[in-house]
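Recap from last week: sequence in, structure out.
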Amino acid sequence: MIRLLVFLILAAIVLPLTYFRFKQFPLVKRMIISGGALAAAAVALLMQESYAWYIVALALVGVSFLAAFAFAKIITKERQEKLRIAEERREQKLQQSLKKSAVLEKAPAIETDEKPMSFGMQSIDAEREEITRG
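Predicted structure tokens:
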């Protein structure tokens, strides 16, 4: 009975600490980690008096494995969602670039009567007379 009371006290300390201390992680991940640890401890506590130590250790490993499996499933779903969003963005960029290229192809070329700008020695007219002082 005292072991159960100690477990409840520890659970009352661990869950709020996990909730408030690790704000940078999503709530689901925080609760799976702390809930998995508390579930493993609770199973071990309940099995401790009636089973051999190696069966209790096996139960601890099993419950920990279930928590890790749930955590891995959540991470996999998040990665798939990120990949889906990235793919949607690529598709939108591709469609926008296709629209822009279609608009550029449809627009008529603007012809100007102006000569292109010349630079350096090209700006001097070859037919012009040179004025010399002398």
